[in-house]
Specification:
2 copies of one chain form a homodimer.
Chain A (H helix, E strand, L loop, with lengths): L3 E7 L7 H13 L5 E7 L3 H5 L3 E3 L5 H7 L21 H13 L2 E8 L1 H16 L5 E6 L15 H22 L6 E6 L6 H6 L12 E3 L7 H15 L2 E6 L27 H12 L4 E5 L2 H5 L6 H19 L5 E9 L4 E8 H4 L20 H7 L11 E2 L2 E2 L19
Helix pairs in contact in A: 1-3, 1-11, 4-5
Chain lengths: 419, 419
């Protein structure tokens, strides 16, 4: 088989380590010049393929590629853009194949979450249908940790570490001030559907009474009275209460707390997230002084304190993706398989994309305590290995040195296309 | 002079490094058994002196004391409690002196910000008036960096480093997503009166066009039209816009943005901070997709990425406070004096508390750019040395190992007192 060029793209919300996967792909690919031609990266994810904005990675120096491993964000640009239904929007898929054909691309590496796995699968299907062979390989990434089959998702370990550390640190602050000041602290974390990140906050505590005292999961319907009673109990027992709340916290009827129909003076839907909403309840029901924080992008960009395990796994799935391609595989995803907790051992196996696409993995019920407001030891045993090790980026002048690539684009060969 | 016992207390909002000052005090004091007896720490700051809750630090092991240097929060408890006017509340001051007399305390080390400097001065005055000599020494601490005379305040360098890093990291996230998703990101930081912390966000950028594109200071009256025009310009030029905003951002009439009279559906004052308020303006005036983060306590507790310079200075002012006491000084504060920027050199001198108490240091006008929306090179030259170096705490199981002290209290010798 004549050697083909390859395409790599980043998809969906970026993470502290998605570029480590890119690094794994590029470095491994470069070790096999007999099999692979040029690697093009899509500018802004799959959009770059549709618009024929292909970043030529062959011009990147070894040092630039290596620097990707410690740089957060998406170095080639990512996108929130889901390919539409293949039946009604066949033109989009055909355009993809045209671009791939024009640039002699035979490998499609797609680095993303659940939606991207679906896109990746569709690309495999359309390539078969159109008689232009593409080996489509999905490289897992998501802070939400909600992909099936793989034991965990690259990107999650680092956000978990950041949230656990932040919870522990903020708790020491509140503990020292609670006698005369703030009694309730609320940290809002990501996770609209699954409570994995909120659960990671639970790692901050080690003993009975340690913060966080409550974790509010999307998986557990929110009961205001029960939660407020528990908050009150913590303030009375420990002097203060720390709550980690998932942005996806919701009532039994599915309404998000952060979107509970309240409007501001101008009639706009309340802008605040779930943390200020919950803070309002604390004030109204209990009258305690509160503070709240919303970590937002800070949590998923916090490469400065990334989990070394996460960085290693992110790189490994990139590397494994290329190795699967070498073996002639397609419509697969490298999945992380846990072998043991003590010591933590894992390896990579291939998963079929058909089993991955459009399946969301929620927190198992036995990861959540009986009262629905904390994590269990089973959950802790699952989470702990994922935050092991500190992998600091290089620092200069007190700040992490992250790389920002200047792009060299492949020449355009096709007419313009509006996605 | 017979040797006397000493009292140390933490006051006001805690920081990532206030315990490093405590460590400096304790370790230095222990080196001079000829001069000092037992060091008692006030439980919850000055309240501990009033209520006679004196933590006996002599039982702490060397390792415990050393661990304070890398532990955020206030290890002995702090408080938001300002001693009232000396004329009308003389009983409070007399009680302090009674407690000090009962426990043979001759040294008063008070670790705090501007309000605490005032309290420290008052304690010196009352001790003189009551004929019970106390050497009152103020040890500077405040993330707000607003004490006079000292070039900077321990606690600030670490929050500055955290905010600069977080801004740089979040900016990479937004830059990679802006083509199809978030275009405006707003990070709210502390600083109700002075914009020092917001200014530190400016260190994230190095070149024209780098984030943060706008910094909103409390010192510069907020003009909605001007700010929104600049946001729009950034989105059009760079594809996205990152804003660092001080919680103290206000209109020309002094009204805080975060407290602009808006109420929620229940008629309560809007709970949100300035970040969601500003986000609402972006949505209303420009229609761009936004995200916002409120770092809150996370920023001042972030010991995991503390500035090594800050840790060193926090320890040094604790040490210097004890040395000043040895020299027989009172009503003074060790101040950090900058000698040069390249290389960064500093030393400690004594400042008179009379010159420190109740004076707030704002950002000099030449630290803020002409348009009022960013920092100048002069400001950058001032800030850069303060965030130098990474001083990581020890980690175990992926998390920083912070110490939580168990307190041994000195026996009570006096009747109860309700402050």
């Amino acid at each position: 088989m004549a050697k083909k060029n390859a395409f790599y793209a980043q998809s969906g919300g970026v993470t502290a380590v998605i570029n480590a996967s890119a690094c794994g792909v590029i470095e491994t690919l470069r070790q096999h010049p007999e099999a692979f031609g040029t690697l093009y990266a899509g500018h802004n994810g799959i959009l770059g393929a549709l618009t024929e904005e292909l970043i030529d990675t062959s011009v990147l120096s070894e040092a630039q590629v290596a620097a990707l491993k410690h740089t957060p964000g998406g170095a080639f640009g990512s996108c929130r853009y889901k390919l539409k239904d293949i039946e009604t929007h066949q033109a989009q898929y055909e355009r993809l194949i045209e671009v791939f054909r024009a640039h002699d691309i035979g490998y499609f590496f797609y680095n993303g979450g659940g939606d991207s796995a679906d896109t990746c699968l569709k690309v495999a299907q359309i390539s078969e249908k159109m008689g232009y062979p593409i080996q489509a390989i999905h490289i897992p990434k998501t802070v939400d940790n909600d992909l099936p089959i793989t034991d965990n998702c690259p990107g999650f370990g680092s956000v978990a570490k950041y949230i656990a550390i932040s919870t522990r640190e903020a708790a020491l602050d509140i503990a020292s001030m609670c006698a005369t000041s703030t009694k309730v602290f609320i940290l809002e974390v990501m996770g609209r559907h699954a409570g994995w990140i909120a659960a990671a906050g639970g790692l901050a505590g080690q003993e009975e009474g340690d913060a966080p005292h409550l974790i509010i999961f999307p998986e557990v319907p929110f009961e205001r009275e029960k939660v407020m009673a528990r908050v009150d109990e913590c303030v009375k027992n420990y002097g203060y209460c720390v709550i980690v709340v998932s942005e996806g916290a919701r009532y039994a009827d599915g309404t998000f707390l952060a979107d509970a129909g309240t409007t501001d003076a101008f009639g706009h839907k309340q802008l605040g997230g779930v943390a200020p909403t919950l803070a309002g309840m604390v004030k109204q029901d209990l009258g305690y002084k509160y503070h709240w924080a919303v970590a937002d992008y800070l949590q998923r960009a916090a490469r400065h304190i990334a989990s070394a395990t996460d960085v290693e796994q992110a790189y490994a799935v990139g590397q494994a993706g290329v190795e699967l391609a070498l073996e002639g595989k397609h419509s697969v995803m490298p999945a992380i398989i846990r072998e043991s907790n003590h010591p933590y051992r894992w390896h990579i196996e291939q998963a079929s994309l058909a089993d991955v696409a459009n399946v969301e993995k929620f927190m198992p019920r036995d990861f959540i305590s009986m009262d629905g407001l904390n994590i269990t030891d089973t959950c802790r045993a699952y989470l702990e290995p994922l935050i092991q090790g500190e992998d600091l980026p290089p620092f200069s002048k007190g700040l992490p040195q992250y790389i920002q690539l200047e792009y060299t684009f492949a020449p355009r060969l096709l007419a313009e296309f509006t996605p």
